[in-house]
Amino acid sequence: MDEVTTFTPNVARYENLMEVVRNRLTTRAFRPDIAVPREHIEMVLEAARHAPSGANAQPWHYIVVTDPQVKQQIADYFVTEATKRAKLKMKFPTPNYRGLATAPGFVVVVADFRFVRAFPVLLDGSDLDRKYQANAERILLQSVAASTMSAHLAAAALGYQVWWVTAIGQDDAQKELRPLLGVPDDLAIIDIMLFGVPAKAPYKRWKKTLPQIVSWGKFDMNNYMTLDQIDDWVREARHKVMYRDEGKVD
Ligand SMILES: Cc1cc2nc3c(=O)[nH]c(=O)nc-3n(C[C@H](O)[C@H](O)[C@H](O)COP(=O)(O)O)c2cc1C
């Protein structure tokens, strides 16, 4: 019997996926009056569960926040952190983190960095080990991001809009946020996923074109940016591509 050598791609399924991918739009304020049922939260996190991860370590955990007071405390923390950044003159365009408290779907993403041990590391404290450990941390972060992204797409597929918040600051944040959620000291809260029905119509933000992000064969130097060009972009373009109307520059 002849071997089958043709492959028919499922373009219809691709288009269904792309409809979700294109229309996942960051939203920073939600309708608090429209609840997200537990069943939908579980559907969203079911998508997170199937994500790929380095060594299949699955170094993630999701805490669903349901208590409005805890949501408010976390929102307050982010507002304070944004004010701190403003004082440090980081010049980062800061959104209004008060919107956090309005999110019906509120999921704290926890990473277990001890799983760097599952990746190629020496664990002997040597310089070489430090290099491998740094790479292992990248593997771990990418793994958690892959899982988180699956959850974001699942929420978007259900018709909700999403907000990915990493503006946690640094170690101080861990100390403040862990006790609120009973997170053990050796785990890290790395971001927060919010979702729900948007308070106002979401909008599509600027995306680079395909030729700007893809090279065929070897890196297309037309798309290489010098450090000066990146600094210009940060100064001139960043605030425009991050927000249309809700942003303010510190
Ligand atoms: C890793 C990551 C971190 C982000 N951190 C924050 C954040 O801390 N605060 C925030 O308001 N938005 C955050 N965002 C949302 C981005 O600002 C947003 O995705 C970007 O402006 C593009 O808009 P879009 O999501 O509508 O395509 C983050 C997104 C990603 C993927």
Provide a quick synopsis of the model.
This protein has 250 residues and is an alpha+beta fold. Helix content is 43%, strand content 12%.
How are the strands of the biggest sheet laid out side by side?
A: 1-3-5-4
Uncertain residue segments: 246-250
Decide which structural class fits the backbone. Answer: alpha+beta
Mean pLDDT: 92
Number of helices: 7
Total number of beta strands: 6
- Separation of termini? 69 Å
The biggest sheet, with number of strands, parallel, antiparallel or mixed sense and barrel status, is: 4 strands, antiparallel
Description:
- With 250 residues, this protein is an alpha+beta fold.
- 43% of the residues lie in helices and 12% in strands.
- The chain has 7 helices and 6 strands.
- It has helices at 11-22, 38-49, 68-87, 127-158, 171-181, 210-213, 227-242, and strands at 60-64, 93-94, 105-111, 161-165, 188-196, 248-249.
- The strands form 2 sheets. It has a 4-stranded antiparallel beta sheet with strand order 1-3-5-4, with helices on both faces.
- Helix 2 (38-49) packs across helix 4.
- The radius of gyration is 20 Å and the shape is globular.
- The N and C termini lie far apart (69 Å).
- The relative contact order is 0.19.
- Residues 246-250 have low confidence and may be disordered.
- The structure holds flavin mononucleotide (FMN).
- Residues 25-26, 28, 95, 164-167, 205, 242 line the site of flavin mononucleotide (FMN).
